[in-house]
Amino acid sequence: MTLEVDMGKYKSVKVPLDVAEKLIVDVSKRLNIESKDVMESLRIVRNFDEFYEFQQKKFKDYVVPDKDISDMIKGAVVVDSLKLIKEGSSKEVVVTFDRRINESVIIDSLRSLGFDVEVKRFDLMQFLKAK
After folding, report:
1. CA nearest 115: which of 26, 10, 5?
2. Torsion on CA atoms 35, 99, 84, 18, rounded to nearest 10
3. Would you call 71 helix, strand, or coil by DSSP?
4. What pLDDT shows up at residue 131?
5. How far is it, in rounded angstroms, from Cα 50 to Cα 116?
6. Is the Cβ–Cβ distance between 13 and 20 less than 8 Å?
7. What's the CA gap between 77 and 72, in Å, rounded?
8. CA distance 69 to 85
9. Residues 8-46: pLDDT tens digits?
10. Under a CB-based contact definition with an 8 Å cutoff, are residues 48 and 118 in contact?
11. H helices within the chain, ranges in order?
């Protein structure tokens, strides 16, 4: 499992649909955060097919869960966005965590779910080479 950390320090991981809910719940429990974005993210994951269709109709790459402004001010946002992926019968979710979430929390959570974790960091030079 690869945890990608981009230039803005957002952390993303691509997981099977059945793991996405467990991961979001586990990370929020480890942080002791119950925020609106966590509840919205769980609703999106649990209703994958409906939100996948919405994502396709709107030509969006990501679904962004609603966030409370007060949670944003307190630094209590866990999930920044979700990318829903369907390839044949396979369903996957790219969970992008807020930049303030410590990557060690996500790594520990993935390990507790039985995954080996590799961290891949993107810097400006890699970004420029990709263009």
Report:
1. 26
2. -60
3. helix
4. 55
5. 31
6. no
7. 6
8. 28
9. 899 999 999 999 999 999 999 999 998 999 999 999 999
10. no
11. 17-31, 36-46, 48-57, 69-74, 103-112, 124-130
First to last CA, the chain: 25
DSSP character at residue 63: B
Under-50 pLDDT residues of the chain = none
Percentage of the chain exceeding pLDDT 70: 94
**Residues for the chain: how many in total?**
131
Whole-model pTM?
A: 0.89
User: What DSSP element (H or E) covers 95?
Assistant: strand 90-97
Tokens of 121: 């960091």
How confident is the model at residue 7, as a pLDDT?
Answer: 85
